[in-house]
Amino acid sequence: ASDTGDSIRGPAAHQALVGLRSTMGLVSRAGVVPLNLASDIAGAVTRTVADTAAVLQVIAGSDPADPATAAARDHAANYLASLRADGLKGARLGVLHQAYDTPTLDAGVDALFKGSLGELRNLGAEVIDPVEVAGLDAMRRAQTGSCNQFKHDLNRYLAALGDKAPMHSLEEIVKSRRFHPSIQVRLESGQAADDVPGVSPGCRSRDEFREKLRAGVMALMDAMQLDALVYPTWSNPPRLIGDLNTPGGDNNQLFAPSTGFPAITVPMGYTVDDRLPAGLQFFGRAWSEPRLLELAYSYEQATHHRRAPTLR
């Protein structure tokens, strides 16, 4: 799977599964069709934290086909060694209300999350509630314009395929009409954009915001000596198929994609008559996957919130 905004962690939480969005540059994206290379991450959705660690053990590392992974050779680790049942003992966790506490926060999800904070404390973690990234609202207001680099990234990807590519540009794809109607507007808006990463004003503004956010997150975690920040993966239960009006409550789009820092979601229970899954997310510093896996594994092994679905 790939996670540009939430496509690993979001589906994982909605299905009582585990999903890790790793540090930008830890896992190669070679072969991944790009949506936005500034945010695209490759990874896996798994049943357990142990499965996530096993997959990461295989896929982490540098790859000449993805220059972003150059630093991975200095940071890849033995992730299976992180599967410690006592991983939460002595951990310092900050509750990041800025990630989830919205006017449409579902009462059931909120209650479940508060219960999970109690579970974390019972497992030996020190939970600091609340914590906040200083100046976040001002950072967001200072960001101007937009940066739609889909055409730029996709055209480069198709060009690299050479003669193997059935289409050679986004323009060809749009003209072909060989796509599902539901994505027509997205494809056409991508084709209409001429943004170039690092050059277009909106892209430069986005990059400046990301630098400030990275600094803000690090300042918070360093000042509070935090191992991770925690929040619900979604602020609302999964919506019914076709429901586009009920609040979605996606809490994945801002912090991990914009900083390039890692985040993992693990089941924290069920809402809506104990039927719909919810996820607890641990968000950490760059290259902190070993610590995040410890925290998630410890929580998972103590709570066993995931229930296998009943097949009919």
Structure, briefly:
The protein is of the alpha/beta class and 312 residues long. The chain contains ten helices and seven strands. It has a domain at 9-128 and 227-303: Alpha-Beta Complex (Amidase signature (AS) enzymes).
Name the CATH class of the domain at 9-128 and 227-303. Answer: Alpha Beta
- Supply the number of helical segments: 10
CATH topology of the domain at 9-128 and 227-303: Amidase signature (AS) enzymes
Note the gap between the termini.
Answer: 26 Å
CATH superfamily of the domain at 9-128 and 227-303: Amidase signature (AS) domain
Q: Strand-residue fraction?
A: 5-15%
Percent in helix: 25-40%
- Strands of the biggest beta sheet: in what spatial order? 2-1-6-7-5-3-4
What this model shows, in words?
By secondary structure, this protein is of the alpha/beta class. It has a domain at 9-128 and 227-303: Alpha-Beta Complex (Amidase signature (AS) enzymes). The protein has 10 helices and 7 strands. It has helices spanning 9-14, 49-59, 107-122, 136-142, 150-161, 170-176, 184-192, 201-224, 255-259, 289-303; strands at 18-21, 45-46, 92-96, 126-131, 228-232, 263-271, 276-283. It has a 7-stranded mixed sheet. A hairpin with a 4-residue loop joins strand 6 (263-271) and strand 7. Helix 4 (136-142) packs antiparallel against helix 8 and helix 6 packs antiparallel against helix 7. The longest helix has 24 residues, at 201-224. The model has no long low-confidence stretch (mean pLDDT 97).
